[in-house]
């Protein structure tokens, strides 16, 4: 079994907080890391295929991100 070792410590700086909605369902995602991001996903095609009409919300309304 191989153990992976990080050369640099993990960066815990919040880069992006984004919320997506499909109808009444909402999903908030917080992204941490060393580099800023514009969006969580560059392409919503897969989510639209599975859920229909997924939109990036203009504001984050959920108090906490989803835990997975």
Description:
With 68 residues, the chain is mainly β. It has a domain at 14-56. It has one helix at 45-51, and strands spanning 14-22, 25-32, 55-56. Strands 2-1-3 form a three-stranded antiparallel beta sheet, with no helix packed on it. The relative contact order is 0.28.
Question: How are the strands of the biggest sheet laid out side by side?
Answer: 2-1-3
Order of helices and strands: EEHE
Number of strands: 3
Mean pLDDT across residues: 85
Separation, N- and C-terminal Cα atoms = 25 Å
- As residue ranges, the low-confidence spans are none
Measured as a percent range, the helix fraction is 10-25%
The radius of gyration over CA amounts to 15 Å
- Quaternary: single chain
The biggest sheet, with number of strands, parallel, antiparallel or mixed sense and barrel status, is: 3 strands, antiparallel
